[in-house]
Amino acid sequence: MEPCYKRLHLQNVGRDGAVPDNTTVHTNSASGYLLSLVNNLILSDVEFVVEGTRIFGHKNLCMRERHSKEIRIAGVSRVTFLLVLEYVYSDRFCVSDEAAAELFVAADKIGIESLKSLCEDKVCQSLTIETVARVFELSDRHHASKLKSECAAIITANFDAVSKTQGFQKLLQTDGQLALELMKQ
Q: What region holds the BTB domain (predicted)?
């Protein structure tokens, strides 16, 4: 007999919570089925309010605390929160270099260490002279020692170029203590 998750065809819910006409999600695996539940009104029992928009969720997959029907999420964009839910529901991690830093911050804020670690690795792989000072500050703020060490090594090896970037100039203005710590290395 075919597993139930291969037989289910759930309607996908649009960003506004409406079900688009003739929209069906066909699933071929357990993770595909779970992924189809992200922001899906069907069987949802919790709503996350992100940037004023409702995102539908399932308490048994998302959270330990099961009493609230609505959870407000501040400081995380809607797109990033949907990526968090995709990871929680399906273990799927497929993000651009640009999205990885924002997802890293969200994972730290929400407390998903495995996602934070994946993002940290992705951000490490995409460091450039232009981004390294900003990411160094980010790694310090979110206690990411591996990322901070990688940034420090790149900054030290390329100090002349990095010191001319907007990110480094901003670091000097906003967190002189951290910039001093960096220059001592």
A: 44-127
